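lol ok so funny story. i was supposed to be doing the assay writeup but got distracted and ended up predicting the structure for this chain instead. priorities right. anyway since i did it might as well share w the group, maybe its usefull for someone
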Amino acid sequence: MKWDVKQELKVKSKELRTGKIVDIVLENRGVGTKSQKEEFLSPVKPEKLTPKMVGIDEAGLNKAINRIEKAIKDKDLIIVYGDYDADGITGTAVLWETLYGLGAKALPFIPHRKKHGYGLSVAGVEELMQEVRPRRGSGPQKPGLIITVDNGIVAQDAADYVKKQGIDLIITDHHVMPKKLPEALAIVHTTELSGAGVAFILSKEILAKSKIPASPAGRKNPIRQTQGKQKSKILNLLELAAIGTIADMVALKGANRSIAKFGLEAIRKTKRLGLVALFEQSAIKREEVDTYHINFVIAPRINAMGRLEHGLDSLRLLCTKDLKKAKDLAALVGGTNQTRQDLTQELVDLALGLVGKAPKEKLLIVEHEEFHEGVIGLVAGKLVETYYRPAIVIGRGEKVSKASARSITGVNIIELIRTQESWLVNAGGHPMAAGFTVENEKLDQFKEELMKEAEDRIEAGLLERSLEIDCQIELSDISWDLFNNLRQLEPFGMANARPVFAMKNVEPLEVMKIGQEGKHLKLLLPSEIKGQTTLPALWFGWGSIADKLRGNISLAFSIDENTWNGRTELQLRIRDINFKL
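and the output, tada:
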């Protein structure tokens, strides 16, 4: 793997090197000026975020708020129409809890992946018209207002259908805008936030501007009950918005950093029954939850229901006020996630067999009737990880096929797909992840034309794996002072990766295999850390190279801490080793 060292550490004085290392890390993330550093290290509190700060048009926002107020006063049925992934589900919960807390006659709706497809759809709206009953035992009631969350910006046909039914539509979304926007009463949109982030800003503005009185007596209202304190008023919303923001892999800068940082603080103290049950089911400690746990433990469980069953159960888990239901739903979500893991591995093996060992194409496209549409995005991600090429996985249906795409740095996958949009039923997504539907009779021509476009557009150099390294440091630079200073940059995530450093000419004191069947590699390095005689360095999954490591080596790594038997020490998490130098 190529090492891309971003900056050189030129400071010689040991007393000044720690501060300079932190400055270099910030500069590598586009945080260079004094004011930028102050803003990054002390981000604005979420309650002080404004629509202007995040690129939301205030005219459209105010129009949306006015219509929502009218719907609440007139007792219109409001449908919060979400999406079935973690971002859409948490965003739906944020907006629904806000409206419910204001006394609205509001219901959440999460589309079923197979029945309704992605986002706002004619099929989904038809079901709303036929099945929605605001009260148990009552007949169906036509909605007066539909508000989308994390979807809708490409739903022209569905928006037209909603209008024909005499229903008002407000779209809240963060996906890339198409050339032609759907017709809606108001659009609340920005690509700077996640879908849950947009829902959070809208909810915050509704609470700030609404003239609606407190909800009717007898209705539990966690938002209004804590109205006296601005921070407390939004805590229940912020913890959900943080999950959606982190899970959707948006850049953790600016407003997203604010939502993620303070949202994680709220999560670590949460009393939300569904989250507490989910943490217990996942065997993680609430007070230790960070971006890793959200991305690799919590979000996959929330996503699993929408992938294989119905995302509405994940929404119920997040919003329930019943302890038994919370535990039952957490068990359901956890079990479904295990099924999802098993199915994903089976289909990853199938996809790897279709691609082969050494593909030469700049874009990978695989299709098969066995590819389950609920996990094809995960399969595409595994292909990218294995071959370091943008990948599209297509689940072939009887008449139409659905596809999911994942990309690499430098290749805007939704832009690439939209060069062949004329062949598609629909397409949407981000530069790094996208999805589309195509009729089977047009599939072969679409693939052929897209492969040609990819060969022309994608530069060969983009397909070479590289590891971005903040700077090269010395063994003597590793200290608790440096570690604690770097922790001020948390939470780490997109556009604010965990800092990676390099060291050259390091001779391990000991090299060993650890774990079951010696699967992992552990090095013991000389240590200059007070109270720590050696510095452990771990590389998971690389125990097989232990016998090859002799003499001096070069390491790429992150600095971490480990607590064992009541003792906390610094350790390194190895990212790569060069033992040929």
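Residues 423 and 446 are 6 Å apart (CA to CA). The radius of gyration is 25 Å.
back to the writeup now i swear
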